[in-house]
Every structure is written in C-alpha cells, then in structure tokens.
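User: Let's play a game. I give you a shape written as tokens, and you guess the letters that built it. Ready? Here's round one.
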C-alpha cells in the first residue's frame, strides 16, 4: 500500500505529471470565502461558480457528496461537502463531519481511479472546519490509500502562509 507524500508548496499548483485532482472540503450551507477556497478562486473561477450553482440547485447538495470540476486538460478540482455549517455549535462541536469526509473520499477514489489521477490537497478539514489531522489521515488511509492511489498533502508554503498564496 502507498503512503501519503507530504510536500511543501502550493496545493493549487501540483508539479506531478499526469492527471491530477485537487481535493478540498466545503460546507453544507453555501459559504465560500475563507480558507483554502481563496487559493482556488484566485487561480480559477469555475470551482466557485459551479459550487454556487450546486448550492442554488440543492440537487444532491448534501454532506458526503462531491462535485468534480475540470479546470485544465489534466486537472480537476473536487469540491467535497464534509463540513456542517461554518462555526462550532453550541456544544463546541466543530463543523467537520468525519463520516461525510469518508463518504467524499470514497467517491473521490472512484473518480481518481477512472481518471488515473493523483490526488493533491492541503490538510483538508483541519483549518476552519476544526478537524484533527490524525482523524483525517486515518480516513485517507482507509479510503484513498486502500485503492493504492497517489496522495500528496501540501504543507505550509513560503512566508509561513498555509496555502502558499501571496497576500
């Protein structure tokens, strides 16, 4: 079985040959404007536009669902609904929903296998969603790595910026 490959750099600019999918977590209320989505939107408009259309249509817009958007000849962005709302609830539970993330990654694995694509992501679910990387990493191992997919997780970039985009 393969292992997660950790890289320093920009998750929106994978330097690997072949088909690639950039995966990230979205919320289930239609919010797009903080965190990693800013890096995506600064590079391409289509993932945000398609997400907003998905929100408006409400068609299959639920926790555990994914949306694949082709942004280049060999590159897709995968919007994954793995976060309930955007803030901790009244009991202090963060927005991340691990079961939904697992369902998303199972669906992403199917897409990656069909496209013969590697998967690229920041530490999904661990920023604004409030998740713990140990939990997410375990889910990645159970889903994506179980299918022997190439997984690249991008760490903090230059200037200490989490997503490697200049401010």
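Assistant: Ready! My guess for every position:
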């Amino acid at each position: 079985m393969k292992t997660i490959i950790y890289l320093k750099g920009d998750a929106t600019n994978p330097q690997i040959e072949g088909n690639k999918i950039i995966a990230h977590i979205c919320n289930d209320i239609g919010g797009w404007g903080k965190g990693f989505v800013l890096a995506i939107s600064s590079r391409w408009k289509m993932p945000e536009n398609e997400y907003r259309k998905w929100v408006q249509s409400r068609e299959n817009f639920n926790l555990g669902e994914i949306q694949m958007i082709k942004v280049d000849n060999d590159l897709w962005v995968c919007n994954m609904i793995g976060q309930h709302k955007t803030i901790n609830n009244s009991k202090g539970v963060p927005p991340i929903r691990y079961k939904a993330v697992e369902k998303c990654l199972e669906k992403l694995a199917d897409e990656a296998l069909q496209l013969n694509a590697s998967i690229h992501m920041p530490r999904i679910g661990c920023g604004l969603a409030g998740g713990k990387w140990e939990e997410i990493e375990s889910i990645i191992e159970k889903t994506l790595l179980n299918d022997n997919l190439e997984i690249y997780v991008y760490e903090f970039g230059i200037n200490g910026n989490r997503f490697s985009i200049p401010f």
